[in-house]
């Protein structure tokens, strides 16, 4: 069997968008995502030097749907190129090399913040976290959240100073479950997670199972507040920390639905996924609801806010 490889170079932000395109249009035969993200510029344990990201996907040569799917992928990349800086897509034939496993060599452990070490699942036995490091084992699939995107990194960095042992945590828009797992690593006593996409909820559950966690993550499909009473709220008092790593318009929708009212007394929210030009709009929405920003993190054009 032969394959056609489509690859494109991108920065970390654009790589998430390309991955979503490849996952949506070209999932793997086993039902997992079709995007393969190669990250270079790291030493063997994941220290960043000059980050370079290449996203790849593979089509079965000669299959009936291949030509149409290739056109869709190329058109999608063209449109993304109008929004993000992308390299010219490279297309090449590829001989059979057990491609389903070869792509895994492209992933490397990634250090984020002071303590987090994100480890690909198949490297978990070979990578030993250093003293004080908190491992988060992930199997990259269709859900958002490999740790590459600045918004995910900002959220993890903020969590190090906000999530404390014994806290209850809600992960709103859980994606891959990376933030939920990180919350448990920081000592959270309970973690609930929701996403509108059932695939993301399943990814959260599967990734949680890859980690030896002292606390079970409760994941469920939801678009936000509504019908949560009747046992969902921890101790009937709300969550100590609510994580919201989603796009600004979704954050505004969740605030409009009253997500902030589900905080425990003295509870905080960490908001990420905010492009800098949309920050004033978010700040106004927070002010109207009597919420104030107590910490602000930034990386490139992306902003993370800690709110109480």
Describe this structure in words.
The protein is an alpha/beta fold. The protein folds into 2 domains: 3-107, Alpha-Beta Plaits, CATH 3.30.70; 143-307, Rossmann fold, CATH 3.40.50.150. It is 28% helix and 31% strand. The protein has helices at 12-25, 66-81, 99-102, 150-162, 178-185, 198-210, 248-256, 279-288; strands at residues 3-10, 36-42, 48-60, 90-94, 110-112, 116-120, 134-138, 168-172, 190-195, 217-221, 239-245, 263-275, 293-299, 302-307. Strands 10-9-8-11-12-14-13 form a 7-stranded mixed β-sheet, sandwiched between helices. A 4-stranded antiparallel β-sheet has the order 2-3-1-4. Helix 1 packs antiparallel against helix 2 and helix 7 (248-256) packs parallel to helix 8 (279-288).
Helix-strand blueprint:
Elements: E1 3-10, H1 12-25, E2 36-42, E3 48-60, H2 66-81, E4 90-94, H3 99-102, E5 110-112, E6 116-120, E7 134-138, H4 150-162, E8 168-172, H5 178-185, E9 190-195, H6 198-210, E10 217-221, E11 239-245, H7 248-256, E12 263-275, H8 279-288, E13 293-299, E14 302-307
Parallel strand pairs: 6-7, 8-9, 8-11, 9-10, 11-12
Antiparallel strand pairs: 1-3, 1-4, 2-3, 5-6, 12-14, 13-14
